[in-house]
Amino acid sequence: MELKIDRVTKNYGSKIACDRLSITLGKGVYGLLGANGAGKTTLMRMMCGILNPTSGTVSYDGIDVSREEYRDILGYLPQDFGYYPEFTAQDFMMYIAALKGIPKSKAKIKTDELLEMVSLKNEAKKKIKTFSGGMKQRLGIAQALLNDPKILVLDEPTAGLDPKERVRFRNIISRMGADRIILLSTHIVSDIEHIADTILVMKNGQLIHEGSLEEIITVIRGKVWECTVPQKIADEFTVKYPIINTRNAGDEIFLRLVCDNKPCETAVNAEATLEDLYLYYFSEEEKGE
Amino acid sequence: MEELTKTYDKIYRFCFYKVRNSAAAEDIAQETFLKYFAQNTKIKRGEDMAYLYTIAKNLCIDYFRKKQAEELPENYPSEEFSENSDTKIAVRAALEKLDERHKEIILLRYLGGASVNEAAKAMGISRFAAYRLERAALAEMKYYLKGAL
Amino acid sequence: MKFNIKKELIEAFIPPEPQNRDGFLKSLPYPKLTYPEFVMSQICYIRKRVWLVSIIILLAGIGTVCIIPDSRMALVWTISALIPLLAVLTAAEISRSDIFGMSEIEAGCRFALPQVIGARMIILGICNFAVIASATVILGIFSPFGIARSALYILTPYVSVNGISLAIFGRVRGQDGVYLSSAAALAVSLAGVILSGKEFSGGMSANFFMTAVCAAGVILMIVQSKKILVGKDNYYGIKD
User: Which chains touch A (3 or more CB pairs under 8 A)?
Assistant: First the structure.
C-alpha cells in the first residue's frame, strides 16, 4: 500500500504551483500544512487525477492516477463543492454512489451507514439547500467514504465545522487511518496537530518539512522567546526577528518571537508549538494577504 | 433482511449439511462468495444462485479430499443440527436413504433455499426435469417416513 | 394433523448460528457497475423538463396538424419556436456539473466527469434524435418541403442553439450562463419564426444560407462536446 508522487510539477503559465515534488505515502494520516497559495489544492487535485501534472507521475502500487482502478479506491472531498438544487442528502449520496459504480442495493445500505456516522440520519430526506455549512461539509465527508477508499484526500475538511463537529471528525479520521492512506489539508494548525501521524509542510510548491509533530518542531525548539519590551525596542525586534505574536501590555509590548539566541535580558524561553512553526514560516505571506 | 445476508445463510446451511461443522461451513461459504465475486462480472443475474451453489459444492468436495488426505488441522469437530425431536431425527434419517439425485434436489431446494430454476441450473437439468425430480424425491421421503413415524 | 414434509425438511436441518457473517459481508468486494449499467442509472437524473419539452414538441406538432387545416405555416412556427428550447435544455443538462459546481467531486469518482457527461450525452442524444426524427417526419408529410428540407429546418436551429449554449456554459459559469444561453435560444427561435415567413417562397440562396448555418452549428457542437469530454484542465473552473 504505497502512494507514490514522483517529481510532480504543475505550471500555470509562468507560475509554478507545484515544483518537482516527490514523496511516498504509506498507511496513516498525513496533514498537509501551508498558507493559501502554497500549492496544497493543486497537489491534491493532481493526486486525484483531476489535474494533469505538467510533468511527473502519481501512482498507487503501480496503478497510474489516470486509471479507473485508481479512482475506484479513491475518496475525495474538494475544498468547495456544489450540489444539484433538487437533491436531498440521500439523493446526493445515491448519485455519487452511482458515479462510484456501487450497485443500488449496496449503495442504499452504505448511504444509511455513513449518514448515521456523520449524524445526518434524521436529515437524510431534507434538501441540501436547507443545510448549514457544517452539515454540508459533513455530507461531503460522507460521500468521500462511500466506496471505502484506500486513498482518502480531504481538502480543508474541517472548514465550517463547529468545535463539536471537529471532535467527531477527528475521531472518524483516526479510526480510519489504521488501514488506509489519508491526506488532509488545512490552514488550521490545531486540526492537524491532533490527528496527523505525519505532518507535511508545503511552501511555494515544495515540501519543506516532513515528519512527526516532534520531529518537525525541533526546527524551532529552544528558539521561541517571550518578552515584554518598550515600543521602541519592539519595533526594532519586529524588523530583526520573525514575530509570532504581539499584544499591548500596559505601556510596553508583549512579543513572542523566533530567535537563535536570547534577544534581550528579560526574554524567557517558551515551549515551541506547531502553531509557532507555522507562523514562523508563513507570517510573511499571511501579512501580504 | 438484506439480500446478501439471506444468500449467505442459504449457502452456509447448504455447506453445513455437507461438512457438519459450523466453522468449516462458514469458511467455505465465505470462500464461495470471494470466488464468485472475483470472476462474476459477466454472469447473468438469474444464474447467480445456481453458480454460487456450484462453487460451494465443489469447495465441499475439496474439503473432504483434504480431510481424507489429513491435510486439515484437527480443529473441525463434528457438530449436530440444532434440534433433536423424534420427527427431526426421522426426517434426517429418511433423507440419507435417498439416492444421490433425489438427495441433491432436496438439499438445494429445502436446505439451500434455491428456487426450482436455480436448482435446475445448478444440477444442469431442465426446469421441468427438476420439478419432476423434486416430486419424486418428496414422495420417496414420505414413503420412508411413513414407516418410521 | 397433516404431516407437512416441506416444512419439516426445512426445520430438521437448522445449523448453528454463523459467527462472523456480518463482518465478512461488510468487507466483501462486490462487483461494480459496468458502463452500460451506469448509463442506465443516469436516466433518472435527467431533469423532467427535458422529457416534458420533448413530449410537448411532439404533441404540438401533431396538435397543429390536427387542429389547423392548412397548417403548413403554423407547423413551421411551432417547431422552429420549440426546437431551440430543447437544444438549450439539452446543453444545460450536459453542462450541469459545471453550472452547479459538482465537477470536481464527479471528476474524482470511478466514472469520472467525461464518463458522466458521456452518459448524459448518450441518453439525451437518443432522446433528442427520436424527437427530431419524428418532427422531421411530421413536417415532411404535412408541409410542401419534403423530408430533406424539413430536416434542415429542424436541425439548423437545434445544432446552432446547442453549440452556442455549450460554448456559453463552458465560459460563463453558474446561473449567468443559463440566462445567456436562454437568450441565445430565444433569439434563434425568433429568427426562425421571422425567417420561416420570408424564406417560405424559398430561393436557392436561402437554402444555401441555411445549410451553411447548419454545418457551422454541427461543427460548433462537435468542437464544444469534444472540449467538454477531453479538455480537462481548463474545464473545471480551476483558477489558482
Answer: B, C
| The model scores a pTM over 0.90 | no
Rounded to the nearest angstrom, the minimum Cα separation between B41 and chain A is 13
A275 falls in which pLDDT band (50, 70, 90)? confident
Q: Which of B1, B6, B7, B8 to mutate to test the interface with C (most CBs of C within 10 A)?
A: B8
Q: State whether the Cα torsion C94-C95-C99-C101 is positive or negative.
A: positive
Assess contact for C93 and C47: CB atoms under 8 A: yes
Which residues of chain A lie closer than 8 angstroms to B2, CB-CB? 105, 109
Name the grid cell of C218: 454541427
Choose among C102, C107, C240: nearest Cβ to A82. Answer: C102
pLDDT digits (tens, 9 = 90+) for B70-89: 766 656 667 777 777 788 88
The answer to whether C20 and B26 have CB atoms below 8 angstroms apart is yes
Touching check for C178 and chain A: CB below 8 Å? no
Residue C79 scores a pLDDT above 70: yes
- Report d(CA A194, CA C210) in Å as an integer: 67
Show which subunits contact B, needing at least 3 CB pairs below 8 angstroms: A, C
Nearest by CB: A103 against C30, C236, C240: C30
Q: Which residues does C9 contact at the CB level (< 8 Å), separation at least 6?
A: B91, B95, B106, B110, B111, B141
Least confident of A23-37, C28-42, C67-81: C67-81
Average pLDDT, integer, range C44-62: 91
Ranked by mean pLDDT, the top range of A81-90, B73-82, B111-120 is: A81-90
User: Rounded to whole angstroms, what are the CA distances from A10 to A14, A21, A228?
Assistant: 10, 10, 45
Beta-strand relationship, A15-25 and A3-12 = antiparallel
Nearest to C33 among A17, A83, A103 (CB): A103
Residue A3 touches partner C, C-beta closer than 8 Å: no
Residue in this structure with the C-alpha cell 448515521, named with its chain if needed: A116
Instruction: Determine the pLDDT at residue C227.
Output: 85
Q: Do A109 and B3 touch (CB under 8 A)?
A: no
